[in-house]
Amino acid sequence: MTDTLQDTNDTDDQLDELRTWLADNWDPELTVAEWWERLGTSGWAAPTLPVGSYGRGVARPVGVLIANEIAAWGAVGAPHGLGLLLAAPTIADHGTVEQTDTLVRDIVTGQAAWCQLFSEPGAGSDLAGLTAKAELDGDEWIINGQKVWTSLGQSADYGMLIARTAPDAPKHQGISYFALDMHQPGVEVRPLRELTGHAMFNETFMTDARVPVDRLIGGLNRGWAVANTTLGYERAGLGTGGGSRGTIVMPGAIAGNLEERVGDFVPTTGDRPKRENAATAGDHPARRDDLLTGLARGNGTIADPLIRQDLVRLYTLNELGRLNSERLKSTRVAGGDIPGMANISKLSMSAVMRLTRDLGLRIVGAQGMLHAYESKDQATLNQATGNPFLPGVTGTALYAQAPSIYGGTDQIQRNIIGERVLGLPKEPGNDKDQPFSQLLKNS
C-alpha cells in the first residue's frame, strides 16, 4: 500500500511538472513539426519509454494520465499510430543507441509513421511460419515476400518487418527483425477494403527491397524475441483498461500535417485553454458503455431489463479492465509483475467488442441495418435516421470481428496463457526443432 501511495504522489508531481512545461512551451502558432519536436524531445510524447530513450520511464496508466492532461490543456498530443505504440518501445528495448537516436527520435517527433509487416497469407496464427526472406548483399539486406493486414501501410514511412534470414534453422530461430523504408521502388502497398467501408488494412509486396545492415533490430536471427516484444506492446495497448483522450494527428511525410499550424488541430487555441477536465489520478476517458447507455435512454430501450443487464455487464467488463491495469501498475511499483496480463487484457477487449456489437444493435433496432460505407453518404444517412450516433454503433458492429483476430487470435492468447503462465504442456509437434526448409508448407 505504501508503494502505491508513493506512486500516486509521484504521479501528481509529474502532472504538475507537465502543466508547468505546457505553460512554457505550448504555442498554437507553431507548426505541427515544431510542436512535436518540443513534445518528443522533452519526453512527454512517449513518457512510458525509458529515460534516455526519449521517455520518462512511467507505467502505462501514468502515460494515459499524461496524455489526458495534454488534451485537457488544449494542446495537440503525441504523434498517433503504430510508431509510438509498437516500434518505439521495441527499438528502445532491443535496438542500439544509434537506432534509438535516429529511429525513435523520428517517431516521438512525428517525422516518421510506421506500419507492421508481420502476417502473411500463409502465416497468420502460425506467425513463425513466415516465408518472406532477407538475403545479405554486401552492406544491405535484399527483401522478397508478401505481407498482409498491414495497418496504415499506405501512410507509413517505415515498416516493422520480420523476415527469414536462416531457412535451415528451426522456424523460430531463423527470423530477423528490420526497419524497412517504405519509400522505395521495391515496396508496393495495395489497400484491402473492409466490411466497414474503410481500407485501414493493406497487403504489401516486397520485390528486391533493400534494408541497410544498420536497420537490423536486435541482432541476426533473433527476430522472434523482438517480434514477441512488439506483440506484447500491441496486446497491452489493445487490451481493456482505458485509453487516452486527445485530438488524433497522423505523423509522417505522407499524412501532410507536419507543416500545418498546430493550433488548427485543437478546438481551443488561446494563451491559457480552459482546463475544467484536466486529468487526475484515477481519471479515465468516456467509454462505449456511456454512449450505449445514452442511446438506450434516448429511445426508451433502457426499460428493457435484458438491455439494462447487458449495459451493466459491459460497464463491469470495462471496469475490470481498468482495475486490472491499476493492479498491474501497483504490482510493478512493488517490483513485481503479473504474467499473462497483456494476453488477458487482449481477450477482455475482444469480449467487450463482441458485447458492444450485440448490445448496440439491439438498442438501435432496425436502424442497425443501415450504414454509410462512403463518407460522402454519412450526412444523408444522419439526416434520414435523425441519429448521428448510429455510425458509431454500426461501425463498431462491422469492426467487432477484427479484434479477436489481429494482435494474435483469441486462441493464440489462450495458448500463451496456458503454456507460458499456467505451465500446461505445449502442443505436440517437431516444428520447433526441425529446420524450416524441411517443414511442410501450405501450397
Task: Describe the protein's architecture and organization.
There is one protein chain. The chain is of the alpha+beta class and 443 residues long. It folds into 3 domains: 130 residues, Butyryl-Coa Dehydrogenase, subunit A, domain 1 (Orthogonal Bundle), CATH 1.10.540; 122 residues, Butyryl-CoA Dehydrogenase, subunit A, domain 2, CATH 2.40.110; 121 residues, no CATH class. The protein is built from 12 helices and 8 strands. A 4-stranded mixed beta sheet has the order 1-4-5-8. Strands 2-3-7-6 form a 4-stranded antiparallel beta sheet, with no helix packed on it. It is globular.
Percent strand equals 5-15%
User: What's the number of helices?
Assistant: 12
Q: What is the fold-level CATH name, i.e. the topology of the largest domain?
A: Butyryl-Coa Dehydrogenase, subunit A, domain 1
- How big is the Rg? 23 Å
Order of helices and strands: HHHHHEEEEEEEEHHHHHHH
Mean pLDDT, as a whole number?
A: 88
Strand order of the largest sheet: 1-4-5-8
- Strands, count: 8
CATH architecture descriptor text of the largest domain: Orthogonal Bundle
How widely separated are the two ends? 57 Å
Q: Biggest sheet: strands, sense, closure?
A: 4 strands, mixed
Question: Under the CATH scheme, which class of the largest domain?
Answer: Mainly Alpha
Overall, the morphology is globular
Helix fraction bin: 40-55%
Helix and strand composition category: alpha+beta
Uncertain spans: 1-6, 269-286
Q: What is the domain total for the residues? A: 3
